[in-house]
Amino acid sequence: RGTLLVQVRVAQVSGRHLVVLAEDMTQARRLEAIRRDFVVNVSHELKTPVGALSLLAETVQEAADDPEAVRRFAARMQSEAQRLSALVHEIIELSRLQVAGALGPGAMVDVDAVVAEAVDRARTTAAAKHVRISVGGDTGVQLFGNHDLLVTAVRNLLDNAVAYSGEAAHVGVGVRARGDLVELAVVDEGIGISAAEQERVFERFYRVDPARSRATGGTGLGLSIVKHVAADHGGEVTVWSQPGRGSTFTMRLPRVPSAALLEPPGAPDQ
Length: 270
Ligand code: ADP
Prior knowledge:
The chain is of the alpha+beta class.
């Protein structure tokens, strides 16, 4: 960061003239480093559940004559397999979002429908903890984008709000139309995030408390996906939080993103 990396090539020598081509390599190097880090992180993250599964399989074999133990280990194998499947799903989702034009052709999206679908999907985990989810704010708001990606983003924020709140807590979803922007906020009264951690939670695989994230089935990719969905819509996501008091994640999305973000007409479907 801060250094300009330039690749210099002597392109032509004629008589006493020398043509030198200088190419900015910083961006290319940076992208390459991000890609390499991602592959290393993914391999590391996949190793944990795969290792656990293999260990559990061994243990089941050894405990073959104890049906109760077999049942217990089989249940743990199932939950590890579910974690692995969630992780693979999110890795694929994130790789797709990192490609330009991830928004697809886009359409006018009904924000009420996005919120309703996300709340509906988060309901099972919320009910298990007796967490109440309420929706408020402006209704009838529309924005140009991708319905499914927006549902995924709101769902990830809701899942976190539930996971990092106590039993019987309250989680709110608020929609506000502000000029050319639509604000979508998910508010919780959970454990909160310290100022130092707030800067890092959107990084891939970053967790404040890895043990807690694991226990709640977290993958460490949820907020990274939200960040990409917001960026693909030409917007952003920010966090306000106080440890012990709760967190508010707000997506600010333009009703219509700038032309540069939209797929050119006739571009092939991905
Ligand atoms: P995870 O799958 O671990 O939840 P995320 O990318 O969704 O991964 O979030 C990254 C980390 O940010 C979490 O592990 C958690 O430490 C913290 N975090 C996210 N949302 C909240 C929240 N609503 N309240 C408190 N901490 C949160």
